[in-house]
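**User:** My hope is that you can spare some time for a protein that puzzles me. As I understand it, each token names a local backbone shape. I would be glad if you read both lines and explained how they fit together. The protein I mean follows directly.
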Amino acid sequence: MLCGTIRPIRLKTSIFNVEASLETYNWVITTAFQYFNLLRNIKNG
């Protein structure tokens, strides 16, 4: 009985962790891209 109730919660947590990781990954990519554009603009300007 206990195992049956714990497993879905753990699955939910791992799915949440994956979503959080993807969000962080997207944020890092976006920030790096903006930073790169800023540097390029400074170089060209």
Notes: Residues 26 and 32 are 10 Å apart (CA to CA). The two ends are 67 Å apart (CA to CA). The mean pLDDT is 85.
